[in-house]
Amino acid sequence: MRVVIARCSVDYQGALEAHLPLATRLLMVKADGSVLVHSDGGSYKPLNWMAPPCAMTEVEPDEAEREEGTEAVWVVRHGKRDDTLRIRLHEVLSDSSHELGVDPGLVKDGVESQLQALLAEHIGTLGDGWSLLRREYMTAIGPVDILCKDGTGATVAVEIKRRGDIDGVEQLTRYLELLNRDPHLAPVQGVFAAQVIKPQARVLATDRGIRCVTLDYEALRGLDDAGSRLF
Asked: Name one Pfam family in it (predicted).
């Protein structure tokens, strides 16, 4: 990765035209060819960028650019569209390149498999007297995350998501329709459990008689005692 801090102006031409006046900015050229222009504020998003496939060439400024104080020009062209990013460098304050190697990727804490294991271990989170029957209970259309019994002995199917949306409710609905055909399990109720449940999903679940439960990952791990909080 090449990292440059420079006083520069930037012009973009493509589906629209955009101009960044002369200012000190961070320029990043990644190994995949992408070029990003950052300021010192405005959150993590770049002010402008060109995503691959693209190619960058460094050219001499024209006469008008040189009169304005431009020392070098980066021209970045997209490989499939007529998009061009023209970066005019007036003063380079820092220019360094670094070999970052292959990134192993983001390892997420609190993925669905971890939530499933924690909730199965602490099934009492769903109510007093609840007991686990099985994780990954297989059906003809896929595995139900958790099959358990509530405090009255009724069978409950639990679908677990990190972010609960309408698709998750539909998935649980299909499982319930199938499970309720089994006389050894029926009647089977549903619980839709997630760290965050979207309002539309909650409305749909409630309309279908499915209980929604918001999971506190830290509390399930024993790192946070929700009952001892002041607020």
From this structure: NucS_C
pLDDT at 108 over 60: no
> What predicted TM-score, i.e. pTM, was given to this entire model?
0.53
Residue 33 Rama label (left phi>0; alpha psi -120 to 50; beta)? left
Which two structure tokens, joined as six digits, stand for 23? 């200012």
Q: Which domains does the chain possess? A: 2-97 (2.70.180.20), 112-228 (3.40.1350.10)
> Residue 217: what pLDDT?
83
Q: Are 34 and 54 in contact (CB under 8 A)?
A: yes
Closest CA to 191 of 218, 209, 170: 209
User: What's residue 107's pLDDT?
Assistant: 54
> For the CA atoms of 59, 60, 64, 67, what is the dihedral angle to 10 degrees?
130
Q: From CA 49, how far away is CA 69, in angstroms rounded?
A: 23
